[in-house]
């Protein structure tokens, strides 16, 4: 892929400076003045690029790699060709993420749509009772409701809707088309395009004449440094709160039901559905397209494989997979057994022919 103008390369920084920022070790000091301008995968790296390696599977690609430096662990340093400078890190994956953010800071958040000089566009609708701290940006066609409060350094994107009485902290980015209602939002929160926060939870009581709507009068609380992906929806609580814990990252197209409580530093991947009143502990990772039943608990540090169906509590720090979800090793043994029987049946059928 050729470099595009959406995210132009960095003006450049010396490898020694980059190593210091990352807390990495420059394997050969004579490479200290090499300049890094961009990040790249190993297979198409060129001069000025930084790559990273986290397994020996990249060994063949490294032979022809033209990167100006490669990040890796000490255990993998021996597979790096002599012609490529090396930065040694205890966590190469995390260090590479830090390097990318340093070289491309504008790619870390949704970008501003317009280049207007005014902080608050004259084409935005801001209720006179709303309170905006210094350096709050409001782009065209955004709507900020009555008594809303928005902290310093926050940007409200084009066409975004901030509902009445919503409170948003400092240095947040609410991208274009996002909607934030009935919510309290911490500092340094990112909400991507089209996300909907704080709409009705899905609650109805069957009656003799059909479904009777249950009022949803709770809130959504997004703690500091939460990131919400594009077109994700988070329902407000019925009578309590829906809570997303500090540092948790939620992908695009995720549905989180009313009264759900998600802990700190979790990762929830695209198309996950979490039903009402489920409790997710700290550090939980949930793979894409999984479904989580309501009123269950997934304890701290658990990992859920993609396309799993979770219908019961999951113990702390366990790995679960399958439908219904069970311990991952059990699931893999069952899959292996089914494949073996299928293969045996096929061979028998071929012989019978």
TrEMBL record:
One annotated Gene Ontology cellular component of this protein: membrane
Catalytic EC class: transferase
CDD domains for this protein: LbH_LpxD
Top-rank lineage group of the source organism: Bacteria
GO BP terms: lipid A biosynthetic process
PROSITE patterns: HEXAPEP_TRANSFERASES (PS00101)
The enzyme's E.C. designation: 2.3.1.191
Protein name listed in UniProt: UDP-3-O-acylglucosamine N-acyltransferase
Taxonomic path: Bacteria, Pseudomonadati, Pseudomonadota, Alphaproteobacteria, Hyphomicrobiales
Gene coding for it: lpxD
């Amino acid at each position: 892929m050729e470099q595009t103008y959406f995210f132009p390369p960095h003006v450049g920084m010396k490898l020694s400076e980059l190593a210091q920022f990352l807390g990495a070790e420059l394997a050969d000091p004579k490479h200290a003045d090499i300049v890094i301008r961009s990040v790249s995968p190993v297979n198409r790296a060129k001069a000025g690029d930084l790559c990273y390696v986290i397994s020996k599977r990249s060994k063949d690609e490294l032979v022809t790699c033209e990167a100006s430096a490669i990040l890796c662990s000490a255990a993998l340093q021996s597979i790096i060709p002599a012609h490529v400078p090396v930065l040694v890190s205890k966590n190469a994956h995390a260090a590479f993420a830090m390097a990318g953010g340093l070289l491309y800071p504008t790619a870390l958040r949704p970008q501003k749509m317009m280049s207007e000089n005014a902080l608050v566009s004259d084409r935005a609708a801001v209720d006179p009772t709303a309170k905006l701290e210094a350096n709050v940006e409001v782009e065209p066609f955004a709507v900020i409701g009555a008594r809303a409060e928005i902290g310093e350094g926050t940007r409200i994107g084009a066409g975004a809707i901030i509902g009445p009485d919503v409170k948003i902290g400092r240095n947040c980015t609410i991208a274009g088309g996002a909607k934030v209602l009935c919510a309290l939002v911490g500092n340094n929160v990112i909400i991507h395009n089209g996300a909907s926060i704080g709409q009705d939870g899905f609650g109805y009581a069957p009656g003799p004449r059909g479904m009777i709507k249950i009022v949803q009068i709770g809130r959504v609380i997004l703690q500091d440094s939460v990131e919400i992906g594009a077109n994700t929806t988070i329902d407000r609580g019925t009578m309590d709160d829906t809570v997303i814990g500090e540092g948790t990252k939620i992908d695009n197209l995720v549905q989180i039901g009313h009264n759900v409580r998600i802990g700190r530093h979790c990762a929830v991947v695209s198309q996950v559905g979490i039903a009402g009143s489920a409790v997710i502990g700290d550090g939980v990772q949930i793979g894409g397209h999984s479904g989580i039943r309501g009123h269950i608990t997934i304890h701290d540090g658990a990992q859920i494989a993609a396309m799993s169906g979770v219908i019961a509590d999951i113990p702390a720090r366990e790995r679960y997979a399958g439908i219904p979800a069970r311990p991952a090793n059990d699931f893999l043994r069952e899959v292996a057994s089914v494949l073996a029987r299928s293969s045996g049946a096929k061979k028998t059928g071929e012989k019978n022919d």
